[in-house]
Design goal:
homodimer; 374 residues; alpha/beta; Aspartate Aminotransferase, domain 1; Aspartate Aminotransferase, domain 2; 2 domains; seven-stranded mixed β-sheet; three-stranded antiparallel β-sheet; 13 helices; 12 strands; globular; transferase (chains A, B)
Chain lengths: 374, 374
């Protein structure tokens, strides 16, 4: 076509200033770049043991009903989750994974210039949302591979932060704080500052990791998911727990018809099969012991893990760990690693099946050898 | 617990000012209120004929892979859609239904005070998003039950709007404008104003309804979905078509891992089964003729429809139509109706199966009788 060049859309100032970066590059895209599939997929913090067979069956059944929109209020799932968590249904909002819910929660509180505090090297999708709504991110270093809650709260006071983000257990290090420390720390939160407590990995953590917090406490929003313990990352079902008034505020902005009908049916079946969850917890524990053993066979140590992955300390700096990671990828083993020093001395390996562990046991010494050669 | 009352979170000024209303009350919630299921579900503009059996099978297969996140770049689906639409993959972004994509697109362009133009009585979820980002909505009346594109564009000029929203075919009236009129109207759009062209129902519209617009034209973003023609409303798969630079901007803000893996697999299988779509188009055409016949048997007229639903003119005002709607609901028939006069003289009935039509044929005269008694 000839003619005048048409004018471009007018984006907001905020959008114009945003970088075009994405929080993560997915394994499929990495596979396309390397031109071959991975032999072991141990990098995306997925749970290879998958969901309860009853959840799979429920999703398959529901496929025939896919012509209908899902129930926008998700009453059945909220009731089941409320019973499980010992709260009321109006303490719960369902959303498109924790990623989606973090986006909504950030949107509720962040506008240009609002201060937000997180750990340097913590979950980047939270940072992505804060930047996306114009927030000012303040980062606090890890302390001994743990998120440093007193320092996070102190920083929140200094910068008058509206949100402190804490993942407990933490990703990418896999460490956790005792729930009692978090519950006690709430009283030290600055006024008007809300704790975003990301409990994505809580099903893998030791007893006592989930703090005992009253359901009507307005100072905390907890985020949970069916992606990790329940093995349904591809379904996109998360939920947030909080004070009913805070939870209702999500209804002002959320995509009310955003949930997939099969996913909701699967989540409901999954929460009703606690035996499967216990089996998965056992398999994950065993696999983490094997990752630890493989690391030790290669002279490496690991960071104690309260999640379904293990941060393996490659024994040097981030440059070296990145070389190990690249060599593993070249050999068909997909893992990821922390972004920030000194945590980036580690690579992060998800629990896997026996066949995944066999591949790792074969690949790790070769990758280390290659990395040492530079 | 006793102790001090904890302070509430600090919401943004925008969120604080937002009403707690939701765009729609879903049929499940209406069923809970009435204490019984509907006999016929003809109100949510769903496609009761459902997706291709191949799509159902693809979703069932993919249920076993649900432990993995979906490919965040959706390359396979984008390639298939690009081939289908005669564009390139980088003209396409995939999202959580048109509702989700409208949310992203509004967020790209709307900040407090930005003017936006739509038709008075058009799709409320678009309005919900505009209000949610602080935009100022300007509404133009329908003209003879059609969206009035020249008036929409004239108003956009008057208020310096950044977006004009047009659904073609329209919801809730089911009317459409010829594609050539829309293509020609682009040259009259004010500078810096983008047309949001919602083509949710395009698969049901006559040849020539989709305008011929160059894929690199930055003045339009088109929105399409697998919810209507492809019968997958509960899957939440929509896509937007536009200039590559505009499409890339969605990557700055979208939930990159927001898509359900089964849904993406189902959409891919659906787009590869054009025979099923043709069958559905035939069944919908037949059912719309039957709705028209039922209306005429009751002395009512219908608005000509280019969608999978029919606006039945109840022959009086909105008060009367609301009575008809309530009487139908009481009798187990779920339909909806336009919000605004004079379009609210109609009730909106989706195409259905023979059994749905039998229920409608039984229920409509009784509902009219009841409504006439006041």
């Amino acid at each position: 076509m000839t003619g005048p060049r048409h004018t471009a859309p007018k984006f907001t100032g905020l959008v114009t200033a945003l970088p075009a970066t994405v929080p993560f590059v997915g394994p499929e895209e990495l596979q396309r770049k390397r031109g071959a599939p991975f032999r072991a997929r141990l990098g995306a913090n997925e749970n290879v043991f998958g969901p309860s067979p009853r959840a799979v069956e429920a999703m398959r059944q529901e496929a025939a009903e896919i012509w209908k929109y899902a129930d926008a209020s998700h009453d059945d799932l909220k009731e089941a989750l409320a019973a499980d968590a010992g709260v009321a249904p109006d303490n719960i909002v369902i959303g498109e994974g924790i990623d989606g819910l973090l986006g909504y929660a950030v949107r509720l509180m962040v506008e240009p210039g609002v201060a937000v505090v997180t750990s340097d090297g913590a979950y980047p999708t939270f940072n992505y949302h804060v930047a996306g709504y114009g927030g000012a991110l303040h980062k606090v270093p890890y302390s001994d591979d743990h998120e440093d809650l007193p320092a996070l709260i102190a920083r929140a006071g200094e910068v008058s932060a509206r949100i402190v983000y804490l993942a407990n257990p933490d990703n990418p290090m896999g460490t956790c704080l005792p729930g009692a420390e978090i519950a006690a720390a709430l009283d030290t939160l600055p006024e008007g500052c809300t704790l975003f407590l990301d409990e994505a990995y809580i099903e893998f953590a030791p007893e006592g990791t989930a703090p005992d917090i009253a359901p009507d406490d307005p100072r905390v929003i907890r985020f949970r998911t069916f992606s990790k313990g329940y093995g349904m990352a591809g379904a996109r079902v998360g939920y947030a727990l909080g004070q009913p008034e805070v939870i209702r505020s999500f209804d002002k902005i959320r995509n009310h018809f955003g949930m997939n009908r099969m996913a909701v049916a699967g989540a409901l079946a999954a929460i009703r099969d606690p035996d499967w969850l216990r089996s998965v917890q056992g398999w994950v524990r065993d696999s983490k012991q094997e990752i630890t053993a493989i690391a030790q066979e290669n002279g490496l140590s690991v960071v104690p893990s309260a999640t379904n992955f293990v941060a393996v300390d490659c024994g040097a700096d981030g440059v070296f760990a990145r070389r190990v990671l690249a060599a593993l990828a070249e050999d068909g083993v997909f893992v990821r690693m922390p972004f920030v020093a000194p945590q980036d001395r580690c690579i992060r390996i998800s629990a896997g099946r026996a066949e995944d562990m066999a591949i790792l046991r074969d690949a790790l010494p070769k990758a280390l050898e290659k990395a040492r050669q530079g």
